[in-house]
Protein backbone atom coordinates (compact mmCIF):
# COMPACT_ATOMS: atom_id res chain seq x y z
CA UNK A 1 0.00 0.00 0.00
CA UNK A 2 2.91 2.33 0.64
CA UNK A 3 4.16 1.64 -2.87
CA UNK A 4 0.67 2.30 -4.23
CA UNK A 5 0.41 5.64 -2.40
CA UNK A 6 3.75 6.67 -3.92
CA UNK A 7 2.91 5.45 -7.44
CA UNK A 8 -0.77 6.38 -7.86
CA UNK A 9 0.00 10.01 -8.79
CA UNK A 10 2.34 8.83 -11.56
CA UNK A 11 -0.32 6.42 -12.81
CA UNK A 12 -2.99 9.13 -12.76
CA UNK A 13 -0.90 11.60 -14.76
CA UNK A 14 0.16 9.02 -17.33
CA UNK A 15 -3.26 7.45 -17.65
CA UNK A 16 -5.10 10.73 -18.17
CA UNK A 17 -2.51 13.09 -19.66
CA UNK A 18 -0.31 10.53 -21.39
CA UNK A 19 2.72 12.19 -19.72
CA UNK A 20 5.38 9.90 -18.25
CA UNK A 21 6.66 12.17 -15.48
CA UNK A 22 10.13 10.91 -14.57
CA UNK A 23 10.42 13.72 -12.03
CA UNK A 24 7.67 12.05 -9.97
CA UNK A 25 10.26 10.46 -7.69
CA UNK A 26 11.76 13.91 -7.11
CA UNK A 27 8.37 15.33 -6.12
CA UNK A 28 8.04 12.43 -3.69
CA UNK A 29 11.50 13.22 -2.29
CA UNK A 30 10.76 16.93 -1.92
CA UNK A 31 7.55 16.14 -0.05
CA UNK A 32 9.52 14.01 2.41
CA UNK A 33 12.26 16.61 2.92
CA UNK A 34 9.80 19.49 3.33
CA UNK A 35 7.97 17.40 5.93
CA UNK A 36 11.29 16.82 7.72
CA UNK A 37 11.96 20.56 7.80
CA UNK A 38 8.50 21.23 9.19
CA UNK A 39 8.71 18.56 11.90
CA UNK A 40 12.26 19.46 12.94
CA UNK A 41 12.26 23.23 12.64
CA UNK A 42 8.84 24.84 12.53
CA UNK A 43 5.74 23.30 14.10
CA UNK A 44 7.28 19.89 14.98
CA UNK A 45 3.89 18.41 14.10
CA UNK A 46 3.58 15.47 11.74
CA UNK A 47 -0.02 16.41 10.95
CA UNK A 48 0.98 19.92 9.94
CA UNK A 49 3.63 18.43 7.67
CA UNK A 50 1.09 16.01 6.22
CA UNK A 51 -1.00 18.98 5.07
CA UNK A 52 1.67 21.55 4.23
CA UNK A 53 4.27 19.43 2.42
CA UNK A 54 1.91 18.03 -0.27
CA UNK A 55 0.62 21.56 -0.89
CA UNK A 56 4.19 22.80 -1.40
CA UNK A 57 4.81 19.98 -3.88
CA UNK A 58 1.50 20.73 -5.62
CA UNK A 59 2.59 24.35 -6.15
CA UNK A 60 5.92 23.11 -7.51
CA UNK A 61 4.05 20.76 -9.88
CA UNK A 62 1.92 23.69 -11.04
CA UNK A 63 5.04 25.73 -11.84
CA UNK A 64 6.59 22.80 -13.73
CA UNK A 65 3.46 22.19 -15.81
CA UNK A 66 2.80 25.83 -16.62
CA UNK A 67 6.37 26.93 -17.39
CA UNK A 68 8.05 23.82 -18.82
CA UNK A 69 5.82 20.84 -19.55
CA UNK A 70 3.01 22.71 -21.28
CA UNK A 71 5.26 23.58 -24.22
CA UNK A 72 6.08 19.90 -24.85
CA UNK A 73 2.54 18.55 -25.25
CA UNK A 74 2.69 18.87 -29.04
CA UNK A 75 6.24 17.49 -29.29
CA UNK A 76 5.53 13.93 -28.17
CA UNK A 77 6.54 11.66 -25.30
CA UNK A 78 10.31 11.74 -25.90
CA UNK A 79 10.55 15.46 -25.14
CA UNK A 80 8.53 15.01 -21.94
CA UNK A 81 10.68 12.08 -20.81
CA UNK A 82 13.92 13.99 -21.42
CA UNK A 83 12.60 17.13 -19.73
CA UNK A 84 11.31 15.40 -16.60
CA UNK A 85 14.40 13.18 -16.36
CA UNK A 86 16.58 16.28 -16.47
CA UNK A 87 14.44 17.90 -13.79
CA UNK A 88 14.99 14.85 -11.59
CA UNK A 89 18.74 15.48 -11.59
CA UNK A 90 18.24 19.19 -10.97
CA UNK A 91 16.03 18.48 -7.93
CA UNK A 92 18.53 15.85 -6.73
CA UNK A 93 21.32 18.43 -6.56
CA UNK A 94 19.05 21.06 -5.01
CA UNK A 95 18.00 18.62 -2.28
CA UNK A 96 21.63 17.76 -1.50
CA UNK A 97 22.47 21.47 -1.34
CA UNK A 98 19.62 22.25 1.08
CA UNK A 99 19.38 19.13 3.24
CA UNK A 100 22.80 17.52 2.78
CA UNK A 101 23.69 13.87 2.17
CA UNK A 102 23.04 12.45 5.64
CA UNK A 103 20.35 9.88 6.31
CA UNK A 104 17.41 11.58 8.04
CA UNK A 105 14.16 10.36 9.57
CA UNK A 106 10.74 11.55 10.69
CA UNK A 107 9.15 10.18 13.82
CA UNK A 108 5.78 8.47 13.74
CA UNK A 109 3.18 10.76 15.35
CA UNK A 110 2.59 9.84 19.01
CA UNK A 111 -1.06 8.98 18.38
CA UNK A 112 0.02 6.24 15.92
CA UNK A 113 3.04 4.84 17.79
CA UNK A 114 1.27 1.86 19.32
CA UNK A 115 0.61 -1.63 18.05
CA UNK A 116 -2.47 -3.78 17.56
CA UNK A 117 -2.93 -7.54 17.52
CA UNK A 118 -4.45 -9.11 14.42
CA UNK A 119 -4.99 -12.90 14.38
CA UNK A 120 -2.49 -13.32 17.18
CA UNK A 121 0.23 -11.23 15.46
CA UNK A 122 1.38 -7.77 16.54
CA UNK A 123 1.49 -5.05 13.89
CA UNK A 124 2.56 -1.39 14.22
CA UNK A 125 -0.51 0.82 14.20
CA UNK A 126 1.06 3.27 11.74
CA UNK A 127 1.44 0.55 9.10
CA UNK A 128 -2.16 -0.55 9.56
CA UNK A 129 -3.22 3.07 9.00
CA UNK A 130 -1.13 3.16 5.80
CA UNK A 131 -3.03 0.11 4.53
CA UNK A 132 -6.35 1.83 5.23
CA UNK A 133 -5.20 5.06 3.56
CA UNK A 134 -4.09 3.13 0.50
CA UNK A 135 -7.42 1.35 0.14
CA UNK A 136 -9.39 4.59 0.50
CA UNK A 137 -7.11 6.39 -1.96
CA UNK A 138 -7.44 3.59 -4.52
CA UNK A 139 -11.24 3.66 -4.36
CA UNK A 140 -11.36 7.47 -4.47
CA UNK A 141 -9.12 7.73 -7.54
CA UNK A 142 -10.93 4.95 -9.37
CA UNK A 143 -14.29 6.58 -8.66
CA UNK A 144 -13.04 9.99 -9.76
CA UNK A 145 -11.53 8.63 -12.96
CA UNK A 146 -14.39 6.35 -14.03
CA UNK A 147 -17.62 7.42 -12.34
CA UNK A 148 -17.66 11.22 -12.33
CA UNK A 149 -18.57 13.75 -15.01
CA UNK A 150 -15.22 15.42 -14.52
CA UNK A 151 -13.43 12.12 -15.17
CA UNK A 152 -15.47 11.65 -18.35
CA UNK A 153 -14.48 15.14 -19.54
CA UNK A 154 -10.84 14.38 -18.92
CA UNK A 155 -10.93 11.07 -20.80
CA UNK A 156 -12.82 12.67 -23.68
CA UNK A 157 -10.37 15.56 -23.78
CA UNK A 158 -7.44 13.17 -24.04
CA UNK A 159 -9.07 11.62 -27.12
CA UNK A 160 -10.24 14.84 -28.83
CA UNK A 161 -9.10 18.15 -27.33
CA UNK A 162 -10.64 20.23 -30.11
CA UNK A 163 -14.12 18.76 -29.68
CA UNK A 164 -14.08 19.26 -25.92
CA UNK A 165 -12.86 22.82 -26.42
CA UNK A 166 -15.71 23.45 -28.85
CA UNK A 167 -18.13 22.39 -26.12
CA UNK A 168 -16.82 25.16 -23.87
CA UNK A 169 -14.55 23.11 -21.62
CA UNK A 170 -11.12 24.53 -20.79
CA UNK A 171 -9.29 21.25 -21.27
CA UNK A 172 -5.88 22.83 -20.64
CA UNK A 173 -7.04 23.89 -17.19
CA UNK A 174 -8.30 20.35 -16.57
CA UNK A 175 -4.97 18.87 -17.61
CA UNK A 176 -3.09 21.30 -15.37
CA UNK A 177 -5.34 20.30 -12.48
CA UNK A 178 -4.57 16.61 -13.07
CA UNK A 179 -0.83 17.24 -13.06
CA UNK A 180 -1.11 19.25 -9.85
CA UNK A 181 -3.12 16.43 -8.25
CA UNK A 182 -0.38 14.02 -9.31
CA UNK A 183 2.20 16.24 -7.61
CA UNK A 184 0.03 16.52 -4.51
CA UNK A 185 -0.18 12.72 -4.31
CA UNK A 186 3.59 12.41 -4.76
CA UNK A 187 4.18 14.83 -1.90
CA UNK A 188 1.62 13.04 0.24
CA UNK A 189 3.38 9.74 -0.46
CA UNK A 190 6.70 11.26 0.58
CA UNK A 191 5.33 12.38 3.95
CA UNK A 192 3.58 9.08 4.66
CA UNK A 193 6.60 7.00 3.63
CA UNK A 194 9.22 9.02 5.52
CA UNK A 195 8.67 7.45 8.98
CA UNK A 196 8.95 3.98 7.42
CA UNK A 197 11.60 4.33 4.71
CA UNK A 198 13.57 7.35 5.95
CA UNK A 199 15.22 10.08 3.87
CA UNK A 200 18.54 9.47 2.12
CA UNK A 201 20.45 10.41 -1.06
CA UNK A 202 19.08 8.85 -4.28
CA UNK A 203 15.81 7.93 -2.58
CA UNK A 204 13.92 9.45 -5.50
CA UNK A 205 15.62 7.28 -8.12
CA UNK A 206 15.15 4.04 -6.17
CA UNK A 207 11.50 4.90 -5.68
CA UNK A 208 11.07 5.86 -9.34
CA UNK A 209 12.42 2.48 -10.50
CA UNK A 210 9.88 0.57 -8.39
CA UNK A 211 7.11 2.97 -9.41
CA UNK A 212 7.84 2.40 -13.11
CA UNK A 213 7.85 -1.37 -12.58
CA UNK A 214 4.46 -1.10 -10.86
CA UNK A 215 3.16 1.10 -13.68
CA UNK A 216 4.22 -1.39 -16.36
CA UNK A 217 3.00 -4.50 -14.53
CA UNK A 218 -0.38 -3.02 -13.61
CA UNK A 219 -1.10 -1.58 -17.04
CA UNK A 220 -0.29 1.99 -18.00
CA UNK A 221 -2.77 4.39 -16.46
CA UNK A 222 -4.89 1.81 -14.64
CA UNK A 223 -5.56 2.68 -11.00
CA UNK A 224 -6.84 -0.84 -10.27
CA UNK A 225 -3.82 -2.31 -12.04
CA UNK A 226 -1.50 -0.06 -10.05
CA UNK A 227 -3.06 -1.32 -6.81
CA UNK A 228 -2.68 -4.99 -7.77
CA UNK A 229 0.85 -4.48 -9.07
CA UNK A 230 1.86 -2.56 -5.92
CA UNK A 231 0.79 -5.48 -3.75
CA UNK A 232 2.68 -7.97 -5.94
CA UNK A 233 5.87 -5.93 -6.28
CA UNK A 234 5.86 -4.73 -2.68
CA UNK A 235 5.42 -8.25 -1.31
CA UNK A 236 8.03 -9.77 -3.62
CA UNK A 237 10.58 -7.01 -3.00
CA UNK A 238 10.14 -7.16 0.78
CA UNK A 239 10.40 -10.93 1.07
CA UNK A 240 13.19 -10.92 -1.51
CA UNK A 241 15.28 -8.51 0.58
CA UNK A 242 14.72 -10.73 3.63
CA UNK A 243 15.24 -14.16 2.04
CA UNK A 244 17.43 -13.47 -1.01
CA UNK A 245 19.01 -10.01 -0.52
CA UNK A 246 21.54 -10.49 -3.34
CA UNK A 247 18.86 -10.99 -6.00
CA UNK A 248 15.86 -9.10 -4.59
CA UNK A 249 15.72 -6.57 -7.45
CA UNK A 250 16.29 -9.33 -9.99
CA UNK A 251 13.14 -11.03 -8.70
CA UNK A 252 11.14 -7.83 -9.21
CA UNK A 253 12.30 -7.40 -12.80
CA UNK A 254 11.84 -11.12 -13.46
CA UNK A 255 8.22 -10.75 -12.34
CA UNK A 256 7.80 -7.82 -14.73
CA UNK A 257 9.29 -9.83 -17.60
CA UNK A 258 7.03 -12.83 -16.97
CA UNK A 259 3.89 -10.69 -16.77
CA UNK A 260 4.78 -8.75 -19.93
CA UNK A 261 5.33 -12.02 -21.83
CA UNK A 262 1.95 -13.22 -20.59
CA UNK A 263 0.11 -9.90 -20.92
CA UNK A 264 2.07 -7.32 -22.96
CA UNK A 265 -0.28 -4.49 -21.90
CA UNK A 266 0.07 -5.29 -18.20
CA UNK A 267 -2.37 -6.97 -15.85
CA UNK A 268 -5.21 -4.54 -16.54
CA UNK A 269 -3.84 -2.76 -19.58
CA UNK A 270 -6.38 -4.33 -21.95
CA UNK A 271 -9.31 -2.95 -20.00
CA UNK A 272 -7.83 0.54 -20.08
CA UNK A 273 -7.25 0.36 -23.83
CA UNK A 274 -10.82 -0.73 -24.47
CA UNK A 275 -12.23 2.12 -22.44
TrEMBL record:
Subcellular location: Cell membrane
Positions of transmembrane segments: 49-69, 81-104, 124-143, 164-188, 208-235, 242-262
Topology of this chain in the membrane: Multi-pass membrane protein
Gene Ontology biological process: amino acid transport
This protein's UniProt keywords: Amino-acid transport, Cell membrane, Membrane, Transmembrane, Transmembrane helix, Transport
InterPro entries documented for this protein: ABC_transp_permease, BCAA_transport_permease
Pfam family, one: BPD_transp_2
Main location: membrane
Family the UniProt entry places it in: Belongs to the binding-protein-dependent transport system permease family. LivHM subfamily.
Name of the molecule in the record: Amino acid/amide ABC transporter membrane protein 1, HAAT family
Lineage, broadest ranks: Bacteria, Bacillati, Bacillota, Bacilli, Bacillales
